[in-house]
Write a structure and sequence with these properties.
144 residues, mainly beta, four-stranded antiparallel beta sheet, 7% helix
Length: 144
């Protein structure tokens, strides 16, 4: 079974017991975190697609460690101008291990809709016609 889930602003395809590097999360190492923005689940037989997310679906994970990513060097140069600029960047990452995927979905939401009492649609009250303004008098101007 796999799922497509949004974690820290990015979408990932995850499976159970998979290690994933994501943007830094505000959880301590060893803590469990849950993600409820699940866009798709597939268990081999049927596929559930959310619009945009599947209601009731959840991906649970455990924070393994916090680390910094590989160094990325950004070099800028304008030829024949004597301009050179070198910047470095290391992303702050969190390694998480996916512990479970709970598929919610269409069956539960359909039951909730069927059990909910149907509210009668109220018809809007008929509008009164606006009072007509008196028409301005037209004068005939004829040439004499």
């Amino acid at each position: 079974m796999y799922a497509i889930v949004e974690i820290a602003g990015h979408q990932y395809k995850v499976e159970k017991d998979q290690l994933v590097f994501v943007n830094r999360l505000d959880a301590e190492e060893g803590k469990k975190v849950n993600f409820d923005r699940v866009f798709l689940t597939d268990n081999g037989k049927d596929v559930q697609v959310g619009a945009p997310a599947i209601s009731g679906a959840q991906v649970s994970a455990q924070v393994e460690r916090h680390l910094k990513g590989d160094k990325v060097l950004v070099f800028k140069k304008k030829r024949r101008k004597g301009y050179q600029k070198l910047n470095g960047f290391r992303a702050s990452l969190t390694e998480i291990k996916i512990t479970g995927i709970k598929a919610g979905g269409a069956k539960k939401s359909a039951e909730k809709v069927a059990d909910a009492p149907k509210a009668e649609a109220k018809k809007p009250a008929a509008k009164k016609p606006a009072a007509k303004k008196p028409a301005a008098k037209k004068t005939d101007k004829t040439e004499k």
